[in-house]
Amino acid sequence: MDKKKEISMAVIKRLPKYYRHLAELLRNDVDRISSKELSEKIGFTASQIRQDFNCFGGFGQQGYGYNVKELYNEISKILGLDKRYSTVIIGAGNIGQAIANYTRFEKFGFDLKGIFDVNPKLHGMRIKDVEISDIDTLDSFLKENHVDIGILCVPQMQAQKVADTLVDNGVRGIWNFAPLDIDVPETVSVENVHLSESLLTLVYLMNDLEK
Amino acid sequence: MDKKKEISMAVIKRLPKYYRHLAELLRNDVDRISSKELSEKIGFTASQIRQDFNCFGGFGQQGYGYNVKELYNEISKILGLDKRYSTVIIGAGNIGQAIANYTRFEKFGFDLKGIFDVNPKLHGMRIKDVEISDIDTLDSFLKENHVDIGILCVPQMQAQKVADTLVDNGVRGIWNFAPLDIDVPETVSVENVHLSESLLTLVYLMNDLEK
């Protein structure tokens, strides 16, 4: 447990990539893979991969490589994908609707319980099986339903207020698409997807290559 | 110029954040700000901020803080936002449509020139002023039109093939939403938005807090 606390953000950010590649190997019926082969596939060095896996106690035997199924299950468990998570989306604009329609998340174990928006024209509409409700009902919905993750797709100006409502009602994780660094207590996890920042980074890199 | 080559990815990733906060200060008519005040706003330490700005030659005078307008303009220029960029979106599913509808990007200087999809039902539909075309016409479109950035919103299995078409036609930047690490020559920049990986990171962080 103490060991886990020391795991760096860099390692954590690589875990979902391992998970994705291992899922692909499983789909292709690959039973066993060496760190060298995995390295060629993922693009991290073999020693990086061994070091990362050692953070979690190490899998695989010297000279035999890794059992793909076991490694996949271990990483699932480390990521917490052996459980299911209930989610709500706040903000049913373009991004909110795109996320609601993204079937991949259901397969990972994420159950969308509600969608909320300020726009009355959207109320009552359904995305897949979930109705879009008035954002004013978010607080009471959260009091009556257990929700693990709030997916924040509202404009910048509303983001902090909605985040506060989520936090006050015990939501433990916020996936934040609003272009704002929200303030939350240390007991709540936030992962930002700041699309504009990502696009601006791309432009910087393109221009830098030309210099 | 040589100096710029040494700028670390960590600094580069912070630039869009500076840009966003400075734009907000400008909107609020703030003329001048100290690294300490900027630090409280952005959440990086003041010494981090001074160090970052020094990478680009340094702005601001000791004891006087930074001129917000000047700093904003400088960072715009460093990011390459003093130019405009023509873009195409490939894949008009949920994410592709969301990006096409995102008006913020136009303001930054990104002009959407085309949207391409494999699905005949979408062909001829318009998102804002841009028609969705058959993906089979992408290659000839790119030969006839200058495109700087390709926004890749196709499924994993198609992503590499589309990326190759973009690269072969001189596209210099790929903003990749497909859950795949695409292979491109060193002369092409790629910025990934891997939504599933971001969500899995959030879940890891949530579970880690509970330990």
Automatic annotation (TrEMBL), chains A, B:
<dbReference type="Pfam" id="PF02629">
    <property type="entry name" value="CoA_binding"/>
</dbReference>
<dbReference type="InterPro" id="IPR058236">
    <property type="entry name" value="Rex_actinobacterial-type"/>
</dbReference>
<dbReference type="InterPro" id="IPR009718">
    <property type="entry name" value="Rex_DNA-bd_C_dom"/>
</dbReference>
<dbReference type="InterPro" id="IPR036291">
    <property type="entry name" value="NAD(P)-bd_dom_sf"/>
</dbReference>
<comment type="subunit">
    <text>Homodimer.</text>
</comment>
<keyword id="KW-0804">Transcription</keyword>
<keyword id="KW-0520">NAD</keyword>
<keyword id="KW-0805">Transcription regulation</keyword>
<dbReference type="GO" id="GO:0005737">
    <property type="term" value="C:cytoplasm"/>
</dbReference>
<dbReference type="InterPro" id="IPR003781">
    <property type="entry name" value="CoA-bd"/>
</dbReference>
<dbReference type="GO" id="GO:0003677">
    <property type="term" value="F:DNA binding"/>
</dbReference>
<dbReference type="GO" id="GO:0051775">
    <property type="term" value="P:response to redox state"/>
</dbReference>
<dbReference type="GO" id="GO:0003700">
    <property type="term" value="F:DNA-binding transcription factor activity"/>
</dbReference>
<protein>
    <recommendedName>
        <fullName>Redox-sensing transcriptional repressor Rex</fullName>
    </recommendedName>
</protein>
<dbReference type="InterPro" id="IPR022876">
    <property type="entry name" value="Tscrpt_rep_Rex"/>
</dbReference>
<feature type="domain" description="CoA-binding">
    <location>
        <begin position="80"/>
        <end position="181"/>
    </location>
</feature>
<keyword id="KW-0238">DNA-binding</keyword>
<feature type="binding site">
    <location>
        <begin position="91"/>
        <end position="96"/>
    </location>
    <ligand>
        <name>NAD(+)</name>
    </ligand>
</feature>
<comment type="similarity">
    <text>Belongs to the transcriptional regulatory Rex family.</text>
</comment>
<dbReference type="InterPro" id="IPR036388">
    <property type="entry name" value="WH-like_DNA-bd_sf"/>
</dbReference>
<comment type="function">
    <text>Modulates transcription in response to changes in cellular NADH/NAD(+) redox state.</text>
</comment>
<dbReference type="GO" id="GO:0045892">
    <property type="term" value="P:negative regulation of DNA-templated transcription"/>
</dbReference>
<keyword id="KW-0678">Repressor</keyword>
<dbReference type="Pfam" id="PF06971">
    <property type="entry name" value="Put_DNA-bind_N"/>
</dbReference>
<dbReference type="InterPro" id="IPR036390">
    <property type="entry name" value="WH_DNA-bd_sf"/>
</dbReference>
<keyword id="KW-0963">Cytoplasm</keyword>
<feature type="DNA-binding region" description="H-T-H motif">
    <location>
        <begin position="17"/>
        <end position="56"/>
    </location>
</feature>
